[in-house]
Specification:
Oligomer: single chain
Shape: flat
Number of strands: 42
Largest sheet: 24 strands, mixed
Helix content: under 10%
Distance between the termini: 45 Å
Radius of gyration: 32 Å
Mean pLDDT: 88
Number of helices: 11
C-alpha cells in the first residue's frame, strides 16, 4: 500500500514538482514547476547544476535536501544573478552553504515566507532583508560569524519563527516586542537600553519551544524580571537563564531569579552563571512536576542546593562549578518520609565542586533508576557512593583521589561488584594517581577508558573482561601487554593507546581477541609491537634495511582491519595482518622503513597514508600490495625524491593518489619517465613549489581520471594547450596565483580548456 500511495503522489505532483536527481524524461516542462529540490554535491554546486531553471517562471520552493553538516560552495553567479529572478519564491533554503554575504537583490523576493540560512558563514545580513514583509520563518541557527541582526528587523511584522540558536549575537535589535506574531524566539540577549531590555519578552505571551535568555546581569531588579512574565508562558518547553558578567549584589540577583520562575509545564531548565548565594524556593518546588532535566552550572557563590529530590519527573541533573558546596545533606532530598527522592532520575553529573566532602545517602530506595553517573574534579569527596546502582549503565570518575582506598581500589567497587553493577556497560576512569586496581569482575562491561592513572598495574590492563568491545588507555609511563586474556579470547574490537612513554605489546595478546578490528597508537614515544618468532610477519622500524621477523601462527591477527600510528618517534612493529585494509602513519619523524614483502604480508591493504615521515627513503623491495586503491604521501621529502622507484604503474587497482611535498626539482608533472596507473580516478597535487606546467603527453594516458586537484603551486602558469583528459568531471585549483586569472569564467585564457568540465572550483569558489 505504501508503494502505491507513493507512486500516486509522484504521478499527481509530476507536473509541478521536480527533484534534480530523478532524471525522469516524463517530467513536465521545467518552466512549469513550482517545487524544486535536489541533493547538494559533496563540496560545491556550480552554476551548471541549476541551468535547467533558466526558464522557470513560477518557482515557489527551492530546497536542498542536505542532512550532512559541512560547508558546501554555491555558485556566486547563481546566487547573485539567477536566484533573485525567482520572484514567486515562498520557501528558500541555503542551509550549510558557504555564503559569506547575501546579495541586496534578495529583497526582490517579496513573497518569501521561509528563509533558511542556518549553518552558513554569513557575517552580516543586509538591511534590505527587512523589506520581506511576508516573511514568517527566519532560520539563522549556527551562523558562527554572525554577530548582529539587521537594525530594522522589527519591520518583519509577520515573523512568527526566529531561530538564532548557536549564533554568537552580541545584542538584539531594538523593539523586538513589535513582532506581535512571534511564537518561537530561541534566544534573547538582554540589553541595557530601552527597547532591548527584558520586559520586551513580556509582549510575547504565546512563545513556545525553547528560549535562551543571556546577559541577565543587565537586569537591574526583580520587578524588571517579572515583566518578562515567564510564569505565564505555558507553551515553553525549554528555558536557559545565563549571567555572563560579574555579580556585585547577590541579593539583587536572587530577586531577579526569583521573578524568572517559569510556568509549571516547563520540561528542561538550565541556570548558568547565577551569582546568588541561595536558590529561590520555586526551584525545589514539587509544582515543577513536568521538569525532566535541570542543569546548574558555574553558580559560584551558592553554598547550598534546594530540595531537588522532590522533582518527581526529573530524569537528568547536572551540578557543575560550585566552589562553596561542601556537602549534599538531607535538604538535598527534601522530605523523604513523604516522597521517595529522585524517583525518575536516570542521569546525574556532578563536576568541579572543589570543597565537596560528604555525600549523604538516605536509607531506602534512592537513585535506583540511575543509568549514568559522572563525578568529576571533586578532590575532597570521601566515602562511598550510592549503593543501589543495579540500573547503572555508565560510570565516570575523574579527579577524585579521595575515592581511592589505601588498597588502590575505588571505594565504589567495594563489596559484591557483579551484583551491584550488573548493568554497567561503560566505565571511564581518569586522573586518579593512586589507583592500582581495575574492577575486572564486570562481565557486562562494553567500553573502558583509563586516563592518567599512573599507579595502575599493567597486569590489570592485560586481563580484560571478555565482554569488552573498546579499550582506551592513556597516560601511562610504561605499559607492557603480554599476558593472555584467556583461552576463549574476548569481544574487543577497538584498542587505543595514547600518551604512553613506552608501549610493548605482544601480538599474541592482541591475537587472543579474535574480533579486534582497529588499533591506534597516539603520542607514544616508544612503541614495540612484536610477536614470537616462527612465521613471516610485518616489520616496521627505525633502522633502514630492517629485516622482516617471523611470527608464530598463534600471533596472526586475522581480524585486524585498520592500524593508525601517530606522533611515535621510536617504532618497531612486526606481525602478520592478512586482512589489514588501512594503514596510516602520522608524524613519526624517526621512522626509516616500511614493512618488507608488503605484497605477501598485507595482501588486503587498500589504503596507505604517510604524513610527515621525513626519514623514509623508499618503499620496500617488491613494491606495494597490488590491492592498493588509495595512496597519500604528505611531507615525506626523501620518499618523494625517489618517486620514480614507487612502481605505481604496477598497481592495477590504484584509484586515488595524493602527493604533497616541496619537491623543488619538479617543474613538469607527470614526468615522462614516471608512469601513473591508467586506472587512476583522482589525483591531488600540493606544494610543488617549482611546478610550471602539466605534461599532457603523460596525463592523456589517465583515461579514467575524473578528479584533479592542484593546490599551493605558485609557479604553475597555465594548463596544457591540448587541455585535460576527456574523462575529467571535476577540477579544483587553490593558491595558484598565476593560473587563477586564466580560469575566469568566459574570459580567462584557459577557460575554453575547462568549460566542458562539470565542476570547476577555484580558491574554494565554484566557477561560474
Amino acid at each position: 500500500m505504501h508503494d502505491l500511495v507513493n507512486d500516486l503522489a509522484i504521478a499527481v505532483s509530476r507536473r509541478y514538482c521536480y527533484r534534480l536527481e530523478d532524471n525522469d524524461p516524463e517530467h513536465g516542462k521545467i518552466g512549469s514547476i513550482s517545487y524544486f529540490s535536489y541533493h547538494p554535491s559533496s563540496f560545491h554546486d556550480t552554476f551548471h547544476k541549476f541551468e535547467l531553471l533558466r526558464e522557470t517562471k513560477n518557482l515557489r520552493t527551492f530546497l536542498p535536501l542536505s542532512k550532512r553538516r559541512g560547508g558546501k560552495g554555491l555558485s556566486h553567479k547563481f546566487l547573485h544573478e539567477m536566484l533573485p529572478k525567482f520572484r514567486s519564491l515562498r520557501f528558500l533554503s541555503l542551509l550549510f552553504y558557504k555564503i559569506h554575504k547575501l546579495p541586496d537583490s534578495i529583497s526582490d523576493l517579496k513573497h518569501l515566507r521561509l528563509l533558511n540560512l542556518s549553518s552558513t558563514p554569513l557575517e552580516t545580513l543586509p538591511e534590505c532583508i527587512c523589506a520581506l514583509y511576508n516573511l514568517q520563518t527566519l532560520l539563522l541557527s549556527d551562523c558562527e560569524k554572525l554577530e548582529e541582526l539587521p537594525v530594522s528587523l522589527a519591520k518583519l511584522i509577520n515573523l512568527s519563527y526566529l531561530d538564532i540558536s548557536g549564533t554568537p549575537l552580541k545584542k538584539m535589535p531594538l523593539y523586538m516586542s513589535r513582532l506581535r506574531n512571534l511564537r518561537v524566539l530561541t534566544n534573547f540577549i538582554v540589553g541595557k537600553d530601552s527597547g532591548s531590555m527584558i520586559e520586551e519578552l513580556g509582549k510575547f505571551p504565546k512563545l513556545r519551544g525553547r528560549l535562551f535568555i543571556s546577559k541577565l546581569e543587565n537586569v537591574c531588579s526583580g520587578r524588571d524580571a517579572s515583566m518578562a512574565n515567564l510564569k505565564g508562558k505555558k507553551h515553553l518547553d525549554e528555558l536557559t537563564l545565563e549571567w555572563n558578567g560579574a555579580i556585585n549584589d547577590s541579593q539583587a540577583v536572587r530577586d531577579v531569579l526569583d521573578n524568572l520562575q517559569p510556568h509549571s509545564s516547563i520540561k528542561h531548565l538550565k541556570i548558568i552563571g547565577y551569582g546568588g548565594t541561595t536558590f529561590p524556593d520555586w526551584l525545589g518546588n514539587s509544582s515543577l512536576s513536568h521538569l525532566e532535566s535541570l542543569s546548574l552550572s558555574n553558580c559560584e557563590n551558592c553554598f547550598s542546593l534546594p530540595a531537588l529530590g522532590q522533582l518527581e519527573s526529573l530524569q537528568s541533573l547536572e551540578i557543575v562549578g560550585m566552589s562553596y558546596i561542601s556537602d549534599l545533606a538531607e535538604d538535598f532530598y527534601g522530605d523523604v518520609s513523604a516522597t521517595k527522592p529522585f524517583p525518575s532520575l536516570k542521569k546525574l553529573r556532578i563536576e568541579k565542586l572543589p570543597e565537596w566532602e560528604r555525600w549523604y545517602i538516605p536509607e531506602g530506595e534512592v537513585f535506583n533508576r540511575l543509568k549514568k553517573l559522572s563525578i568529576i574534579d571533586c578532590p575532597k569527596l570521601i566515602g562511598e557512593l550510592p549503593q543501589q546502582l543495579a540500573s547503572l549503565q555508565s560510570l565516570e570518575i575523574s579527579g577524585c583521589d579521595n575515592l581511592v582506598c589505601p588498597s588502590g581500589r575505588l571505594s565504589v567497587f567495594n563489596g559484591e561488584i557483579r551484583q551491584k553493577f550488573s548493568s554497567l556497560r561503560e566505565l571511564k576512569i581518569s586522573a586518579l594517581k593512586n589507583l592500582k586496581e581495575l574492577p575486572l569482575q564486570l562481565n557486562q562491561l562494553f567500553r573502558l577508558t583509563v586516563d592518567d592513572c599512573g599507579s595502575l598495574l599493567p597486569s590489570h590492563v592485560s586481563r580484560l573482561p571478555a565482554s569488552l568491545y573498546s579499550l582506551e588507555y592513556k597516560g601511562c609511563c610504561n605499559l607492557e601487554l603480554e599476558s593472555s586474556s584467556g583461552e576463549d579470547g574476548g569481544a574487543l574490537e577497538r584498542l587505543i593507546l595514547e600518551n604512553c612513554d613506552t608501549v610493548k605489546v605482544k601480538v599474541e595478546w592482541l591475537a587472543s581477541f579474535p574480533m579486534l578490528k582497529g588499533v591506534q597508537f597516539y603520542k607514544c614515544k616508544s612503541v614495540e609491537m612484536l610477536s614470537v618468532p616462527a612465521a613471516p610477519g610485518i616489520g616496521i622500524g627505525n633502522q633502514s634495511g630492517m629485516t622482516t621477523t617471523t611470527t608464530s601462527t598463534s600471533s596472526v591477527m586475522t581480524s585486524l582491519q585498520s592500524l593508525y600510528i601517530s606522533f611515535c618517534n621510536d617504532l618497531i612493529l612486526s606481525f602478520p595482518a592478512p586482512n589489514l585494509t588501512r594503514l596510516e602513519i602520522w608524524y613519526c619523524e624517526k621512522l626509516t622503513s616500511l614493512p618488507q614483502r608488503m605484497e605477501s604480508l598485507l595482501p588486503s591493504l587498500r589504503s596507505l597514508l604517510l604524513l610527515n615521515c621525513p626519514e623514509i627513503e623508499c618503499f620496500p623491495e617488491g613494491g606495494l600490495p597490488s590491492t592498493l586503491q588509495s595512496l597519500a604521501i604528505f611531507d615525506c621529502k626523501k620518499l618523494t625524491s625517489r618517486r620514480r622507484e614507487w612502481g605505481l604503474d604496477k598497481l592495477p587497482s590504484l584509484a586515488d593518489l595524493t602527493i604533497k611535498s616541496p619537491c623543488d626539482e619538479v617543474e613538469s608533472f607527470p614526468e615522462e619517465d614516471w608512469r601513473l596507473p591508467c586506472a587512476l580516478q583522482s589525483l591531488y597535487l600540493s606544494s610543488l613549489q617549482n611546478l610550471k606546467v602539466l605534461n599532457y603527453s603523460a596525463l592523456r594516458h589517465l583515461t579514467s581520471l575524473q578528479m584533479l586537484g592542484i593546490y599551493h603551486c605558485p609557479r604553475l602558469q597555465s594548463l596544457p594547450e591540448e587541455g585535460l583528459p576527456a574523462s575529467l568531471t571535476e577540477l579544483h585549483i587553490a593558491n595558484c596565483p598565476l593560473l587563477k586569472p586564466r580560469l575566469e569564467w568566459e574570459k580567462g585564457q584557459d577557460w575554453p580548456k575547462v568549460a566542458r568540465i562539470h565542476r570547476v572550483i577555484v580558491d574554494r569558489q565554484p566557477v561560474p
